[in-house]
Amino acid sequence: MKQLWLKKIRVVVALVFLALSTVLFVDFDRIGATPWATLVLYPQFLPSLLQFTQTLAWTSTGFLLVLVLTALFGRVYCSTICPLGTLQDIFIRIADKLRKPRKVKFRYQKPHEALRYGILALAIGLFLSGSTLALSLLDPFSNFGRIAGDLLRPLYVAAYNGFGQGLEALGVAGPFPLQWKAPPLAALAFPALFLIGLIGLSATRGRLFCNLLCPVGALLGLVSRFALFKIRIPKDACIVCAQCSMSCKAGCIRLKTQEVDFSRCVACFDCITVCEPQGIGYVRPGPVKYYPLPTMGASPAHSGAAPSTALSAEGKSRRALLRGAATVLVGWAALPDPQAAEARPHNRTPTTHANARHWPVAPPGARDIARFNDLCTACHLCVSACPYGVLQPALLDYGLSGLLQPHLDYRTGYCSYECNRCGQICPTGAIRPLDLAAKQTTQLGVARFVRDNCIVYTDHTPCGACDEYCPTKAVHLVPFQDGLAIPTVQESLCIGCGACENACPARPWRAIYVDGHPVHQLAQRPMAKPIEPQTSTGDFPF
Amino acid sequence: MQRRTFLKTLGAGVWTGAHLALLGRGQRADAGEVTAGAVPDLVAVKNGEPEALFDRGIEALGGMGRFVKKGQRVVVKPNIGWNVPPERAANTNPRLVRRIVEHCLQAGAREVYVFDHTCDDWRDCYRTSGIEQAVKEAGGKIAPGNSEGYFQQIALPHGQRLRAAKEHELILGADVVINVPVLKSHGGAKLSVAMKNLMGVVWDRGEWHANDLPQCIADFTTYRKPDLNVVDAYNVLQRHGPRGVSENDVVRQRSQLLTTDLVTADAAAAKLFGVEPDTVDYIRIAHAMGVGRKDLENLVIRRIVL
Fold first, then answer.
1. A interface test, pick of B160, B209, B238 with most A CB neighbours within 10 Å
2. pLDDT by residue (tens digit) across B46-77?
3. N or C: which end of chain B has fewer CB within 10 A?
4. B2, B243, B257: which to substitute to probe chain A, counting the most A Cβ within 10 Å?
5. Are A418 and B251 a contacting pair at CB < 8 A?
6. Contact residues on chain A for B4, CB-CB shorter than 8 A
7. Are A542 and B121 a contacting pair at CB < 8 A?
8. How far apart, in whole angstroms, are the C-alpha atoms of residue B29 and residue B149?
9. What is the DSSP code (8-state) at residue A396?
10. Do the Cβ atoms of A347 and B210 come within 8 Å?
11. pLDDT above 50: residue A331
12. How far is CA A382 from its chain centroid?
């Protein structure tokens, strides 16, 4: 019996998860939170596990489901639910199409257990000591999010808007254009480099990322070792044709011993499809019959020997590559923020006082920056979901440990008084959901007014853009000179939404900016008595 | 949307538009089809619902047929700046917008577009203000104003501080522009009415703020004045404008002003609001520049109390 249906199911489920995850990251802004978003997010292992530490709720138990699935069937998570896994499968398939026919696709790969579990231990150790850096840089869901959200989304938005313009050119009313607020370019470097590396790795080494670098893969591998159902090679039926081994993108089928390292198997079932004698199968372990190997068993020696020689040569180039990547990474992290001081002032007198921001501004629901940094894996779903484009990946705003975690960047937007979406969709619980009333009194930071940068002061002309946008009137105008009015801040009313900073036209340094709170505070709800209705004379005042 | 058509006509449009504006394009109907004495400079209506106020007001001003001819493309420009519901009065009343769209279509307009370059997220504003729904139900088209691609460079040869701007292509290609501001308080500009509402047809507002706001507001009106201004003073945001903090900032005045002269509209609205027109810088400046008239005492005003 050839279990061909297994692969078919795998492919269908994987494509559904990949498609939904992609749509979620590229088009969240337009479609909003939908029930199927829950379906996609619920079983994502690391986000779910982190969220569970915050909620202890059944809605955060997806990671348990994954553990149970893995204990029963092996790493089916890696071949279906994980969007980064399926993305690699697509790269593998494309590389396969481009490869010369008859060229060997894959070979058995050494398990590299020390490295693999070392990375897992490092990620867990760093996490326990309060840094999600390793987790967020290696977590598959978050990496997929950054690829789809940071890199694919702008392309999608451009295509969508181009399509709309095309329709308009034909005289048909097109859809309303989508918006994309550019993050600092340096923040796109990590996902871009990661993507390039991933394409290279998957094209040449299949799922090596999942079996070497991915902490989720390593952890699930520990469980799948003891899975109930496993891929097994019945030695009595095996003709050692090596088809399974060559098709194995996890490189976990060892022909020498006719054994499958199931801790690395990503349950793709490709081997079952290619097995000529229809022997290899997905079975429950039972009493295994051992038969002497056929004589040809020793012939495919190349499959065992070749990788080891190849490795030594490739090992060097890989080390060089890693060194190169590390250099780029460090250089990129040290880049000055290109938007820190902004060019092209409209104001006659360019401003001179730098904005002394002591803390970045963490999203509403983050509660405090340390807590937030400990839980966020920088998947950037909130960045995709933020309708105002204020959530942007941080460079070193939070320090190295908070690399790429979202912060509120008031140069690209401001936090809408009527929006609480980021907390509702955050898959790790780093941003906790806040109802609107709570969000409207959560003080993320406080606006600081720099009089010497203000256009009213420097150019002696009216402005008031900050006052205009302030939703609570924490920022309001008070009399200045010659009938002019100048802003002032009532801190107790300020929620740190940054509408004032975003609106301020002073450049290169703005005259009002929000300094974040390390621990979010409670703001007063604005209270004002109703205005007494005027006594109507029944006539017009003119 | 026919962006291509715009581009074709743009060169000529910018040139003639700039000059027509100064020749009083907004008043062309006065001189022509309606005899001068019969038509007031300003119609003020009060004590009614937004629809009834407009019905009576436009009738007193000669009917919508005076402004909109068969087959014309009309743009209605309300204030949809903020993501707040109608009762907060930071945006133009959706019932008034609906009524105006209906009148335009009855007068034979080919298309009636409604848009604003909003301050808050445009989708939120369009939805929460109730204006998107009102326009669609009335048979008009709601258009976005959130993307720089919609805005075309225009020259303002008669501006003092503002010499150029990027204006929304819908306005550039419109046969008739109906300006429908809401009367409200405003921090930087003191008052937001008809002239201030035109800030929503340009792309870069920060430039105005950084460059003498009242002068820029006045400068922009030298380009093309709206053919009709309808000031919504049904609910008036009396303080904390232009966004407002709560309904406590709102006073119900149940009034409306209609005029072809946006300076007149602002002057009369200032009076309704309770301030002298001369204390609002851009009204004084625009009058001095000859854009329109603030001297209400010398104008023919039709006052209607329902």
1. B209
2. 999 999 999 999 999 999 999 999 999 999 99
3. C
4. B243
5. no
6. 169
7. no
8. 33
9. S
10. yes
11. no
12. 9
Quick one: tokens of A440?
């409207």
Backbone angles phi, psi at A498, to 5 degrees: 80, 10
- The residue of chain B with its CA nearest to that of A510 is B210
**Cβ contacts of residue A471 below 8 Å, gap of 6+?**
A417, A440, A495, A497, A499, B243, B245
Rounded-to-integer distance, Cα A86 and Cα A11, Å: 9
Q: Which residue has better confidence, A32 or B213?
A: B213
Give the ipTM.
0.86
Does the distance separating the beta carbons of B209 and A463 come in below 8 Å?
yes
DSSP secondary structure letter of residue A416: -
Per residue in A200-210, pLDDT tens?
999 999 999 99
Task: Quote the pLDDT of residue A257.
Answer: 87
- The pLDDT value recorded for residue A303 is 39
**Polymer length in residues for chain B:** 306
pLDDT attached to residue A298: 38
**Residue from the list B119, B248, B272 with its beta carbon closest to the beta carbon of A528:** B248
Interface touch A417/B240, C-beta < 8 Å: no
Interchain proximity B213–A462, CB inside 8 Å: yes
Residue of B nearest to A506 (CA): B210
CB A397 within 8 A of CB A514: no
Strand partners, A472: none
Q: How many CB atoms lie within 10 A of CB A228?
A: 11
What's the pLDDT score for residue A103?
A: 74
**Containing H/E element for A447?**
strand A442-449
H or E segment and range at residue A72: helix A62-73
Using the predicted structure, report yes or no on whether residue B292 has a pLDDT greater than 50.
yes
CATH no. of B3-305: 3.40.50
Local structure of residue B202 (DSSP, 8 states): B
What are the structural domains, with CATH classification, of chain A?
4-229 (no CATH), 369-522 (3.30.70.20)
What's the gap in Å between the CA of A495 and the closest CA on chain B? 13
> Measured between CB atoms, which of B189, B207, B248 is closest to A529?
B248
Size of interface A-B (CB pairs under 8 A): 143
- The amino acid present at B85, given as its one-letter code, is P
How many residues comprise chain A? 542
pLDDT band at B294 (very low <50, low <70, confident <90, very high): very high
Chain B residues within 8 A of A464 when measuring between CB atoms: 186-189, 209, 213
Q: How far is the C-alpha of A248 from the C-alpha of A105, rounded, in Å? A: 8
Confidence class for position A258, pLDDT limits 50, 70, 90? confident
User: Any idea where the domains of chain B sit in the sequence?
Assistant: 3-305
- pLDDT beyond 90 at A278: no
Residues from chain A that touch B205, judged by Cβ atoms under 8 A, are 465
Distance CA B116, CA B127 (A): 13
Q: For B111-160, list the strands marked E by DSSP.
A: 111-114, 141-142, 151-155
Amino acid A22 reads: T
- Residue A73, pLDDT > 60, answer yes
